[in-house]
Amino acid sequence: MQKFFGAKPTAAKKALLLGAGFVVKPTLTLLSEAGVEVTVACRTLESAKQICEAVGNANPISLDVQDEAALDAEVEKVDVAISLIPYTYHPLVIKSAIRKKVHVVTTSYISPAIAELEKEIQDAGITVMNEIGLDPGIDHLGAIKIIDEVHRASGKILSFKSFCGGLPAPEASANPLGYKFSWSARGMLLALGNTARFYQDGNIKEVPGPELMSVAQPYETEHRGYAFVAYPNRDSTPFREKYQIPEAQTIIRGTLRYAGFPQVIRCIVDMGFLSQDTQDFLQRSSAPLPWKEATAKILHATSSSEQDLIQAIDSKHSFADTDKKDRTAEKKRIIAGLRWIGLFSDDPITPRSTPLDTLCATLEKKMAYEDDERDLVFLQHRFEIEHQDGKRETRTSTLVDYGDPKGYSAMAKLVGIPCGVAVLQVLDGKLSKGLLAPYTPEICDPLRAELEKRGITMKEETVA
Fold first, then answer.
1. Looking at the predicted structure, is the pLDDT value of residue 6 above 70?
2. Has residue 7 got a pLDDT over 50?
């Protein structure tokens, strides 16, 4: 079991940890090592038992967070509730904590539903700490540090760009997408449908979800061994206020993937595989269709032969708009990727009602991590700074971390450990009461210092 030294014993404190995902174990282990008594609650008792295996001070239970009375009964027993379940359930946990006057920690963004509870949180006199994982979380800590330093020296942040990728390590990336799933394929694909908004040269730019892959660009980094592409995600415009950088003309937060990912995904989107419409031929059956027939129906192809399927794809998708030679090579590569996934094969589908979910079932099988494979997290901020004397500087702040096949994945560690550290700070009374997220030096500096003790740090460099 990996240990993250630096945790101070927190006597007689109790926590309720809600969730069964891969980030739960690092959080649980850190709290256990600190002497916190943790009740781990999952929908099934077996899942909770597996998480608690070989961890001290851990008690597994079965709990349905939608059962208000049962949730209240467990929340009432502890000092802090840690919500690592899907973000849509966080308000249920926070409402229970308000009723029982118990603190809460989540790794998710403050949603509108949570923001609506701010007055009730204040009236209850509790701390509800959010956005303390990797992204959001560690990204905030690194950004606020440099922004505060520049502003204290009477400088300006002219441009802020931040990109993060959770990826397979390069040696584990040998598939058409250069990607593997440690979480829901559905969640990743659906995120590609979100409209992106950001500031560029003082203007607000908007990219509809279906066009995201078309605007992906090679991402140049000083780490020459990586071939990344980057695209914007979600709405970056609120960060001008959240990070207190009104002077910034460009603010972009986005996602990193390996080169080749956007083109394959764009083809899959154009084929209709992100559709969430229920289809009769994708219903569960004792004799599920072979993939080639399901693909033919989704494409409305004339037959399920590979030739007709490719012809149908040609009618829906425009391959690389470059010279003929490049376009032919690009088409060949993408078609080979679709063939690798199995979309032209006789293999039976795993029917899940919709094109999206049926595709996800296959992707999760074919693109899962093997036991000896590791993941990679690459997070980088890039600041364009104008100093008081008018001199310009480009500064980066970078985190590169690899998972341990015999321990935690990089993603699990970098979400779970910041969460655990924040829980300890809540239990020790080091965070103020109210609805919080790490957007100020007062909150960020102590959290960052604790993470650095555990070997989690962003490296800063002046690159121009």
1. no
2. no
Assign 333 to helix, strand or coil.
helix
CA–CA distance from 420 to each of 74, 90, 94, 104, 171 (Å)?
19, 17, 18, 12, 30
Q: Is 15 helix (H, G, I), strand (E, B) or coil?
A: strand
- Rounded to whole angstroms, the Cα distance separating 99 from 83 reads 16
Cα–chain center distance at 234: 12
What the block records as the tokens of 10 is: 């927190």
Tens of pLDDT along 182-213? 777 888 888 888 999 999 999 999 999 889 99
- Average pLDDT on 307-315 reads 96
CB-based contacts of 217-223 (< 8 A; 24+ apart in sequence): 218/259, 219/163, 219/256, 221/378, 221/380, 221/398, 222/396, 222/461, 222/463, 223/378, 223/398, 223/400
135 is a catalytic site residue: yes
Whether the pLDDT of residue 76 is over 80: the answer is yes
pLDDT at 57 over 80: yes
Are 236 and 194 in contact, with CB atoms under 8 Å apart? no
Residue with tokens 């700074």: 385
CA distances from 433 to 76, 99, 103, 353 (A): 18, 15, 9, 46
Q: Which of 135, 139, 357, 401 is catalytic?
A: 135
Q: Which two tokens stand for residue 132?
A: 């303390």
- pTM for this prediction: 0.92
